[in-house]
């Protein structure tokens, strides 16, 4: 149910433009990815909360499902690799959030609530369903306030990403590389071979021919052919052989006239 919204919050594919300065934080006593931090750390001065862990865990899980299919289970991933992926996700998201705050890009709580209420994931019959909302987010390990904060921060990060993605500028070095590419020349050397001359130089013995035939016998099949015998008859061929008795036609005419008189009477 939360697939599309989690996809929205996970950010868009873009060129990594932030140099990550990670302030160490530790995962303790973990037997699963959902284990709570025993020590909450900071990334670029921003506190890491349990909600951040849940968000990173959900994002990584959905990313793996999108990659490997719906049959994928997060339990199939080695724990050390999975924990490393979650930590990297938290570091990336917190560093990005730090950049938005440094640039003054903020999204109010009211704007985040409006975005949640307009999301089709939490609507029933075209209206916002508060019960469905709370049930869904608590299943994912969030409180309503945690989720509103995550949406607010996610919207701010996406504003920053969109502004960078839509901007266009060219470096001098890129212009020079493009000019070199357009002006470069290449010498091409090629050899022309007459197929018939080449074929005449190839000598194949019977063993090679039989081996090729066995491996490619279908190439030597011919189209199916059938023969057919038939007789053609023409009227003119037997018309002269028909004999009409003498007075036959006159007798037929007489009989017809007699029958006509009988019926007329």
Task: Spell out the key features of this protein.
265 residues; mainly alpha; two-stranded antiparallel ribbon; 54% helix; elongated
**What best-fitting shape do the alpha-carbon axes yield?**
elongated
Structural class: mainly alpha
What is the name of the CATH topology of the domain at 3-172? Triger factor/SurA peptide-binding fold
The CATH class of the domain at 3-172 turns out to be Mainly Alpha
Poorly predicted ranges: 1-39
User: What are the secondary-structure elements, in order, as H or E?
Assistant: HEEHHHEEHHHHHHH
CATH structural architecture of the domain at 3-172: Orthogonal Bundle
Number of helix segments? 11
Name the average pLDDT.
76
Strand order of the largest sheet: 1-2
Proportion of beta-strand residues: under 5%
**Share of helical residues:** 40-55%
Distance between the termini: 99 Å
Largest sheet: 2 strands, antiparallel
What is the alpha-carbon Rg in Å?
44 Å
The number of E-state strands comes to: 4
Write the layout of secondary structure elements.
Elements: H1 3-9, E1 42-43, E2 46-47, H2 50-68, H3 79-102, H4 109-118, E3 123-124, E4 127-128, H5 130-139, H6 144-166, H7 172-183, H8 195-201, H9 206-215, H10 235-239, H11 248-264
Describe the protein in words.
This protein is mainly alpha-helical and 265 residues long. The protein has a domain at 3-172: Triger factor/SurA peptide-binding fold (Orthogonal Bundle). The chain is built from 11 helices and 4 strands. It has helices spanning 3-9, 50-68, 79-102, 109-118, 130-139, 144-166, 172-183, 195-201, 206-215, 235-239, 248-264; strands at residues 42-43, 46-47, 123-124, 127-128. The strands form 2 sheets. The chain has a two-stranded antiparallel sheet with strand order 1-2. α2 packs across α3 (79-102), α3 (79-102) crosses α6 (144-166) and α4 (109-118) crosses α6. The longest helix has 24 residues, at 79-102. The protein starts with a helix and ends with a helix. The relative contact order is 0.09.
């Amino acid at each position: 149910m939360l697939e599309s919204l989690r996809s929205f919050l996970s950010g868009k594919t873009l060129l990594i433009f932030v140099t990550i300065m990670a302030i160490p934080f530790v995962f303790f006593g973990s037997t699963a990815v959902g284990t709570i931090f025993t020590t909450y750390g900071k990334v670029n001065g921003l506190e890491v909360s349990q909600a951040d862990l849940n968000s990173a865990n959900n994002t990584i899980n959905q990313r793996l499902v999108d990659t490997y299919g719906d049959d994928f289970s997060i339990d199939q991933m080695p724990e050390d690799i999975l924990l490393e992926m979650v930590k990297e996700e938290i570091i990336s998201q917190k560093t990005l959030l730090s950049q938005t705050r440094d640039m003054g890009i903020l999204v109010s709580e009211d704007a985040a609530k409006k975005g949640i209420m307009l999301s089709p994931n939490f609507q029933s019959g075209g209206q916002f369903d508060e019960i469905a909302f709370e049930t869904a987010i608590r299943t994912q390990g969030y409180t309503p306030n945690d989720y509103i904060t995550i949406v607010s921060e996610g919207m701010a990060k996406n504003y920053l990403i969109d502004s960078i993605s839509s901007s266009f500028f060219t470096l001098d070095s890129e212009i020079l590389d493009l000019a070199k590419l357009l002006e470069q020349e290449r010498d091409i050397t090629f050899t022309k071979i007459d197929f018939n001359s080449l074929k005449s130089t190839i000598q194949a013995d019977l063993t090679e021919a039989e081996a090729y035939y066995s491996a490619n016998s279908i190439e030597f099949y011919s189209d199916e052919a059938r023969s057919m015998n038939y007789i053609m008859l023409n009227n003119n061929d037997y018309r002269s052989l028909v004999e009409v008795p003498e007075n036959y036609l006159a007798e037929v005419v007489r009989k017809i006239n007699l029958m006509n008189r009988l019926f007329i009477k």
